[in-house]
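User: My notes are a mess, but here's the protein and flavin-adenine dinucleotide's SMILES. Can you give me a structure?
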Amino acid sequence: MEHFRIVIIGGGPIGIACGLEAKKRGLSYVILEKGPIVNSLFNYPINMQFFSSSEKLEIDGIPFISKEAKPKRNEALEYYRRIVTSNELHIRLFEKVVNVEKANDIFEITSSKQTYSADKVIVATGFYDLPNTIDVPGENLPKVSHYYKDPHFYANQKLAVIGASNSAIDAALECWRKGSDVSLIIRGPEVGQRVKYWVRPDIVNRIEEGSIIAFYNSEVREIKENEIIINTPEGDLAIENDFVLALTGYMPNFEFLQHLGIELSDDEKRLPNYNPETMETNIPGLYLAGVICGGMETHKWFIENSRVHAHMILDSITEKNTTTV
Ligand SMILES: Cc1cc2nc3c(=O)[nH]c(=O)nc-3n(C[C@H](O)[C@H](O)[C@H](O)COP(=O)(O)OP(=O)(O)OC[C@H]3O[C@@H](n4cnc5c(N)ncnc54)[C@H](O)[C@@H]3O)c2cc1C
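Assistant: No problem, the inputs look usable. Here's the predicted complex:
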């Protein structure tokens, strides 16, 4: 069984930042990633633009140069990929971690390919794998997706977009501009206040001029082959429909965290138990890094403010045992 000082689960921006930090401190480590490098970013919409400016997405002070102040997905892929390749980080791709157990202060990590042992484990698995479902009949139809990729697919089609946050609004605008007939179904009374400040006026104007039809205070009740039923303040309404994008957010894999023994708060936030100064969880030697730390509050942590976790964790690991390399 291969032994590492640190096994990092997840090769997103923050898992990579942890790997870099471990390398700088001369500790043996491996990053295990179930998909390609920065798998979540790879699966973002192809034209997606970050709300952060590029310097705020930098890790370890490595300059991130982008064409515009706020980089696009493909520039971020380029940036993080170059960090991995130029620094020859130890990352094993398409290798999913399925189990972690601890015995006698040593962790045993089982992946889809092999079993490792490690003194410390960092969980940086993000929140993009599990969508918040809307739990209505028809949600499993092939015309429904919780991930949006490319507007071309929806041209000349009747598209319903469910949601009021950045992902839903970006998709609605892009698809409308490529010729979709877009309806936006919003549970609350308005477009989300956290929508990017330069995008919000655009969607509000498109709604006001009637280009995109918004149903406020409304929820989808049922999805059928050729129509959807929406519950509106005026009662139920059936509208013709070809495709549904249910972009109602994502959540961390709580089952995985609980399986590792990490305690979660009892309230709806389901916050994992960790020390905010060291990022160490209630299981000694098991750390959390990145957006996974926010539980259901997935807007709380992002790359900008969680990239510091790498430093904090490695400080904690090296302070506690400065002799082991
Ligand atoms: C559409 C969108 C736009 C965003 N825009 C911004 C922005 O502008 N600025 C900003 O700072 N943040 C932004 N965020 C938030 C932030 O970019 C992401 O959440 C970011 O990817 C978080 O990094 P992470 O490393 O914590 O998690 P992730 O990037 O999600 O990485 C987790 C990795 O773990 C892997 N993984 C999961 N489970 C396992 C397993 N069992 N075994 C092995 N690997 C596993 C996943 O494949 C994934 O690659 C955005 C998020 C979204 C969804």
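The first strand starts at residue 2 and ends at 9.
User: Great, I'll file this with my notes.
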